[in-house]
Q: What sequence folds into this?
């Protein structure tokens, strides 16, 4: 054994532990799942793992309307949630940036929603939006805005709204914190130059601050697009993809297919298609990030 | 037409007052330089003129208008910052034209103004570059170009050359002076470098600790410093200052070691017998025999023991001691000087100064 190691070039010997770990933890599961997506593998019937059915699963997924609806819904959630979070986060950061006393404390408080497990956030909003005992309906009825119990989580459109609401509540602070960091990093001189050059506060923000903030916004977008593209927990808890699949997202669908229906081969095929969504958005935002940095002369 | 007038302006940060009621009138098209050591309030004063700092009290007028409560954009001023403060995400052309674009001027007019500024500052080839691709000197020229594009009433310069190396600084100094000759405008220029102040200014305003110590043309403040601070701040090397006493007959200055020197004739009426004074003279007026300028009517001679010499080519600065205090002298048409050498030097008393030892004010 020792002799074997001695014969290896030193760089390989030194890298070997990392390589072994990566093989075991990443590559083998990856290959196994890729292989299983070409089999009718069901968790309840292990022997199906050895039956090769070619691209059957992929064809089935590609022609499955439910899958594409879930795909589209995920893109919709991603677009709406990210843009809302960006706008709210930007506003929040701008406000907090103006605070001179107690800003540290505020920043910490701002982070609170991120500290909860998404599962708990899901339960919390499931309660808040509950049609009988929920806070929202209670408030609406007490204020006399409506006398009916609104079925937030039962109506298809409202359920999606509730989920977006929970998602935004939990993660706006990611944008707020990163944008706030961006605000701190803006040099003072160009802003003063802009003032002297005749900018109104809005023009200063639009032409000077915002370009400086864009890299930070794109970093937040890249991080959050990965997050939302694999959204599962909140939806699973709040609606379980219902009512009648109206809030079914990619990963709730895949989870159900794999573990409830036990069709792991099919679920893996869906997974491999879905992964491109996450990759696409991440690559897209990274390109944007690099472009916005280059515009500021950082990479030049 | 824009004069600038500051009356009794005060700046306080909390309880700390940094500018103590400055009065200053700057004429139309005048080039005024505020100079002083760091922390003297010169930049704060400039930023109050710009509107980047609020006044704690006092009034600022630009032209006829009181501008205290106007934001910078309504004051029709331009400012050049120490760190250039260019917009990094815009090309040079966009940087130059930004203020006009903000003001919604037509594109043709912007292009014309940018081309004109680029011509004046020879930025033509750089117009499509970003600030990151420019050298320090080029950035400074863009910053100046951005200021002239708007044809402001007043130019404000905040230590614009202090980030440049010595050679470039000298070059840009000349460009700024040319610029002022070409586009006559009121300029307020802040620097801590007395050479910049001397070479550029129509009028120098010397500040210390939030007060104006003296103002006047460069030669006035050089020839007739109002106090010991101005005497040592303006001119290089700084004026030599020696504590002394006026003799009983009020005709002589006695240095600490008893050396008597005649009181300069023009100062004789200003001194009283027994008065404690500070005797001041510039290195330019103490020179070894045969290596000096034509002397005035009144001279004194010393043997100067040389501790150190700094050859500068056209002249050599000599370091020696008089009455136990280190002083500096100058040698024209220099020859090599060795340490420990004693040189017979002549002091031009007609150009010497006396300051009151208590008030530090000039007795001239």
A:
């Amino acid at each position: 054994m020792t002799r074997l190691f001695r014969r290896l070039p030193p760089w390989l010997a030194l890298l070997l532990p990392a390589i072994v770990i990566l093989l075991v933890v990443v590559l083998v599961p990856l290959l196994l799942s890729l292989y299983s997506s070409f089999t009718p593998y069901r968790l309840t019937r292990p022997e199906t793992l050895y039956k090769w059915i070619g691209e059957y699963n992929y064809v089935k997924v590609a022609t499955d309307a439910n899958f594409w609806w879930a795909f589209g819904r995920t893109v919709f959630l991603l677009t709406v949630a990210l843009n809302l979070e960006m706008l709210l986060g930007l506003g929040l950061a701008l406000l907090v940036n103006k605070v001179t006393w107690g800003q540290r404390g505020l920043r910490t408080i701002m982070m609170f929603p991120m500290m909860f497990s998404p599962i708990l956030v899901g339960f919390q909003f499931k309660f808040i939006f509950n049609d009988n005992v929920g806070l929202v309906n209670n408030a609406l009825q007490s204020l006399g805005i409506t006398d009916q119990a609104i079925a937030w989580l039962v109506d298809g459109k409202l359920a999606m709204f509730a989920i977006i609401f929970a998602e935004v509540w939990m993660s706006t602070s990611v944008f707020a914190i990163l944008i706030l960091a961006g605000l701190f990093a803006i040099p003072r001189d160009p802003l003063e130059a802009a003032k002297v050059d005749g900018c109104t506060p809005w023009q200063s923000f639009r032409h000077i601050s915002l370009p400086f903030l864009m890299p930070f916004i794109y970093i937040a977008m890249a991080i959050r697009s990965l997050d939302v593209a694999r959204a599962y927990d909140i939806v699973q808890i709040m609606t379980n993809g219902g009512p009648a699949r109206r809030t079914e997202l990619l990963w709730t669908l895949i989870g159900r297919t794999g573990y409830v229906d036990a069709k792991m081969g099919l679920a893996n095929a869906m997974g491999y298609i879905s992964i491109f969504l996450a990759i696409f958005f991440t690559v897209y935002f990274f390109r944007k990030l690099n472009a916005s940095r280059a515009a500021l002369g950082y990479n030049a | 037409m824009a004069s600038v007038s500051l009356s009794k302006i005060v700046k306080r940060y909390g309880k700390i007052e940094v500018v103590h009621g400055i009065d200053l009138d700057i004429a139309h098209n005048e080039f005024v330089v505020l100079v002083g050591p760091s922390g003297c309030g010169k930049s704060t004063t400039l930023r109050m003129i710009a509107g980047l700092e609020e006044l704690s009290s006092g009034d600022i007028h630009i032209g006829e208008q009181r501008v205290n409560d106007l934001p910078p954009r309504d004051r029709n001023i331009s400012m050049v910052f120490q760190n250039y403060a260019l917009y990094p995400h815009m090309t040079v052309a966009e940087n130059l034209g930004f203020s006009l674009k903000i003001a919604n001027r037509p594109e043709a007019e912007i292009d014309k103004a940018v081309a004109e500024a680029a011509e004046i500052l020879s930025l033509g080839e750089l117009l499509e570059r970003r600030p990151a691709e420019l050298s320090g000197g080029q950035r400074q020229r863009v910053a100046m170009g951005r200021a002239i594009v708007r044809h402001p009433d007043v130019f404000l310069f905040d230590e614009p050359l202090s980030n440049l190396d010595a050679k470039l600084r000298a070059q840009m100094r000349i460009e700024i002076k040319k610029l002022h000759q070409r586009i006559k405008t009121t300029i307020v220029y802040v620097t801590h470098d007395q050479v910049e102040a001397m070479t550029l200014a129509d009028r120098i305003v010397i500040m210390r600790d939030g007060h104006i110590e003296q103002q006047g043309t460069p030669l006035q403040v050089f020839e007739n410093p109002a106090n010991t601070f101005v005497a040592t701040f303006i001119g290089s090397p700084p004026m030599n200052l020696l504590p002394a006493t006026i003799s009983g007959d009020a005709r002589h200055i006695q240095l600490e070691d008893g050396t008597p020197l005649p009181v300069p004739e023009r100062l004789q009426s200003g001194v009283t017998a027994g008065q404690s004074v500070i005797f001041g003279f510039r290195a330019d007026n103490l020179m070894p025999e045969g290596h000096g300028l034509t002397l005035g009517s009144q001279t004194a001679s010393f043997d100067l023991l040389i501790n150190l010499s700094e050859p500068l080519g056209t002249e050599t600065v000599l370091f020696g001691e008089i009455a136990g205090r280190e002083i500096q002298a100058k040698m024209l048409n220099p020859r090599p000087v060795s340490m420990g050498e004693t040189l017979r030097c002549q002091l031009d008393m007609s150009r010497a100064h006396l300051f009151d030892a208590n008030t530090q004010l000039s007795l001239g």
Summary: Chain B has two domains: 4-227, 240-356. The first strand of chain B starts at residue 4 and ends at 13. The first helix of chain B runs from residue 42 to 50.
